[in-house]
Design a protein that fits this description.
- This protein is of the alpha+beta class and about 475 residues long.
- Helix content is about 40%, strand content about 20%.
- The chain is built from 17 helices and 16 strands.
- It has an eight-stranded mixed beta sheet, with helices on both faces.
- β15 and β16 form a beta hairpin.
- α1 runs antiparallel to α7.
- The longest helix is centred in the N-terminal third of the chain and has 18 residues.
- It starts with 19 loop residues before the first helix and ends with a helix.
- About 35% of the residues are buried.
- It binds histidyl-adenosine monophosphate (HAM).
């Protein structure tokens, strides 16, 4: 039970504590191992970047950019500072104008790049790094992955935090061959499989591309169809008909579902190239034995996507059930000032992944100690210190109490710490050269010489792993 002290973690943030952090480490190590088998290398990125990088990449009308970013001005002048504190950065409108007074000036600063934002995602940063380090000169495609905290000012609830963690990967450069889309998706599913995350569903879709005969034509049709049913939609969807009609398809509102079901579907309006690409992605997934469900409503909430989009949902997460989202974003590097470059990737919500693993009983973090050393006496202490060193070197977790206590008390504590064995070391044991090892689960005891003991524990460990 948390104690209500004066200082508490800020709403939407939290401490991750042992033993749960062992599970986080296990998940991250599995990602390192699985992604390496697909030829991905790790990239470590800054936590903050210029605001414009995210505004341009993700899109100014998206929820992330318009409402959820943690933005501040890095080292403003005193005069700037006094203005900035009066100005919420969220009053930007579709035309790039500010609704309220003086704020035009703030927009200019915002554009000039002085404004800084805690990263809400990392795809934009990876693209920035690709350009900055001339990675187009490397052998293509470049395959990168990352993990770390992201920040979005959303309403906190189960599986939704303001500081959350993502594990993501991006493939940049090379061709837009459907095999790449399929391999990226195969990698995510292999990772989940390695973690024994069961009960997940992979949804895929294609949202076409920006040529006039593809998505824009579909969006026109969609908009026209939405206008006709406008009165039956809620305020959010009504607003989105103007700002981003595709996002209406995302609605979870019960009463809007029958209306959405009648809307035109993008798969029926893709251009020939996108249609062929989508069909090939599906074939490639089948070839790899990856099960998927087509979901024509999967449009994703960030503006940079084109063609393939995908999402993985997991059990036990309530409404925040997406554990992974991704897709293709071929225009993004160019939009950020780089050369024309293909791109596809995904990000896994690590917090949600952990919750889901716990929910299905795969979240038991290893607990306790291998060996608790119950020692009494000066000679015994010297032997105990030596034993602890040797056992730890051999990879065992060891609790060596700093002060001596009666064996009864020591065994109680060994139990409390969920130790597997207690090594009993009194001055007698030390002078005899025979040490007593007690198995706490059944109370049995055996005597060993020092080298025998290490050998015995090694064998037991090998047997149980
Ligand atoms: P996204 O769908 O915004 O995509 O986020 C990916 C995942 O991050 C979500 O599916 C969810 O599991 C997790 N997530 C997002 N917001 C929160 C939150 N507030 N609390 C907890 N978990 C959250 C992206 O971020 C893209 N950059 C993915 C991508 C990479 N697309 C291409 N490459």
């Amino acid at each position: 039970m948390a104690n209500k002290s004066k200082f508490q973690a800020i709403r939407g943030t939290r401490d991750l504590l042992p033993p749960e952090t062992a599970l986080w480490n296990h998940v991250e190590q599995t990602a390192h191992a699985v992604f390496a088998t697909f030829g991905f290398g790790e990239i470590r990125l800054p936590i903050f970047e210029t605001t414009e990088l995210f505004a341009r990449s993700i899109g100014i009308e998206t929820d992330v950019v318009s409402k959820e970013m943690y933005t501040f001005y890095d080292r403003p002048s005193e005069e700037q500072a006094s203005k900035i504190f009066e100005m919420p950065p969220k009053t930007l409108t579709s035309g790039g104008e500010f609704i309220e007074r003086k704020e035009k000036e703030a927009f200019q600063r915002y554009q000039s790049g002085e404004s800084t934002t805690l990263r809400p995602e990392a795809t934009a940063s990876v693209c920035r790094a690709y350009i900055e380090h001339n990675m187009q000169q490397l052998s293509q495609p470049v395959k990168l992955y990352y993990m770390g905290p992201m920040f979005r000012r959303e309403r906190p609830q189960k599986g939704r935090y303001r500081q959350f963690y993502q594990i993501g990967a991006e493939v940049l450069g090379g061709a837009d061959t459907p095999a790449i889309d399929a391999e990226v998706i195969e990698m995510v599913m292999t990772f989940f499989d390695r973690l024994e995350l069961t009960g997940i569903e992979l949804d895929i879709n294609s949202i076409g591309h920006n040529a006039p005969d593809c998505r824009p034509a579909y969006v026109q049709k969609l908009k026209a169809a939405l206008e006709k049913v406008k009165d039956q939609l809620g305020a959010d969807s009504q607003r989105r008909i103007e700002t981003n009609p595709l996002r209406v398809l995302d609605s979870k509102l019960e009463n809007e579902q029958p209306i959405i079901a009648t809307l035109p579907r993008i798969a029926d309006h893709l251009c020939d190239e996108c249609k062929a690409h989508y069909a090939a992605v599906k074939r490639q997934l089948e070839l790899r034995g990856v099960f998927f469900k087509e979901n024509w409503r999967l449009v994703r909430g960030l503006d940079y996507y084109m063609r393939t989009t995908f999402e993985v949902t997991a059990q036990g997460l309530g409404s925040q059930n997406a554990v992974c989202g991704g897709g293709r974003y071929d225009g993004l590097v160019e939009l950020l000032g780089g050369p024309p470059t293909k791109g596809i990737g995904f990000a896994i919500g690590e917090d949600r992944l952990i919750l889901s693993l716990q929910e299905i009983g795969k979240g038991a973090a290893p607990q306790g100690r291998d060996v608790y050393i119950a020692w009494m006496g000066e000679h015994a202490y010297a032997a105990a210190v030596r034993a602890a060193k040797d056992l730890r070197r051999a990879g065992f977790s060891v609790e060596l109490p700093p002060t001596e206590s009666k064996f009864g008390k020591a065994l109680e504590r060994a139990d409390k710490l969920r130790s597997r064995y207690a090594l009993i070391l009194g001055d007698n044991e030390v002078s005899e050269g025979l040490w007593t090892l007690k198995t706490l689960a059944d109370g049995s005891q055996q005597k060993f010489t020092e080298p025998e003991l290490l050998e015995y524990l090694r064998k037991q460990k090998a047997l149980s792993s």
